[in-house]
Amino acid sequence: MDRTTDDRPVYVIGAGPGGLAVAAALRRRGVRAVVLEKSDAVGASWRGHYDRLRLHTTRRLSALPGMPIPRSFGRWVSRDNLMRYLETYADLHELEIVTGVEVSRVERAEPSGQPGSRGPEWVLHATGGRRLTGRAVVVATGYNHTPRLPEWPGLPSYEGEFLHASSYRNAAPYAGKDVLVVGVGNTGAEIAVDLAEGGAARVRLAIRTAPHIVRRSTAGWPAQRSGILVRRLPAWFVDRAGAVLGRISVPDLSERGLPRPETGLLSRARQGAVPVQDVGLIAAVRTGRVEPVAAVEAFKDGKVVLTDGEHLAPDVVIAATGYEQALEGLVGHLGVLDERGRPLAHGGRSPAGAPGLHFTGFTNPISGMLRELAIDARKIATALARTARTARKS
């Protein structure tokens, strides 16, 4: 183990997989890391996901640095087993985690100029009036931070049952009901299937842009490995190959209201829309248990108005419309975010003008998020350990 030390800790904001991985990688290099978590346990956002959730990435390619996921958890790890893994991971690496602390703002503090000063420091403003000073900060608050809802006309006055997918747990409360799921990412597709299998009387899936649907595994070969192989190839090549493979492996569902996508697979992924991994959607659409419909345009007179002019009156509307990263209040004043509110740099690189500030978990890569979190963790730890050694020599 690299015994580089510094009395100023590195603060890691967020005790999800990304934050835990960074803290463990830093500790292996002898760098003290303190993880600050606003909830009362690790992996809070994962705990809040729906019951049937399983990773779409394989067990082997989803492990964090320094600890494999147990084989007993199976190839596609369930939500509950992932929670067990994260808890064990934190214990195994003896991570320093402080729960119940929410950081509201991160600022850069210039060195005091006193003898022994070792460069710029970072100040974190947290709950309870805390003012924490560290030599570096890693923001790992996660891709799925704050539920996002489109500004649909009429939604504020809509009196029907409405919820964001983040509040959905299982199909039991919706047995015998007419449910409209809005959004056809992996979450929306899986919730629609869960509802259809769980006894909902009718399930419709509102789609704005037709998704790429891929088989989670073909002849034992996981889609994730294909994502790893193609992510750095030219988009035009992958788009063409993906179109051919899609026609072979996925039936044409156009007559059922789910046409093939017009934009190529990798081009869409680079825009932030990863393919939908099939966990029953194809069969559900083919048999009519899930009915694709047009996108939602507005809410009016107690009904849902679609872009094709159709008016629906479902018993329940579930919006699987994604999340915001909500970083503006935390670091927006530092000039480290792009026009969409995403970090300008991630992993081992710090944004220009903000040395010692790192981000992880704010991309949605086709190669698998947990795999990329593990890669980021190693890079961040290497960069910060190198900085610490340099400071010690100066």
Short description:
The protein is an alpha/beta fold and 394 residues long.
Q: Can you walk through the features of this model?
A:
This protein is an alpha/beta fold. It contains ten helices and 22 strands. It has helices spanning 17-28, 44-47, 79-92, 186-197, 223-230, 235-249, 265-270, 281-286, 328-331, 369-393, and strands at 10-13, 33-37, 96-99, 103-109, 121-126, 130-134, 136-139, 146-147, 161-164, 178-182, 202-207, 213-215, 217-218, 221-222, 276-278, 291-294, 296-300, 303-306, 311-312, 316-319, 323-324, 357-359. The strands form seven sheets. It has a five-stranded parallel sheet with strand order 3-2-1-7-22, covered by helices on one side. It has a five-stranded parallel sheet with strand order 9-20-10-11-16, with helices on one face. The chain is globular, with a radius of gyration of 23 Å. Residues 1-5 and 113-117 have low confidence and may be disordered.
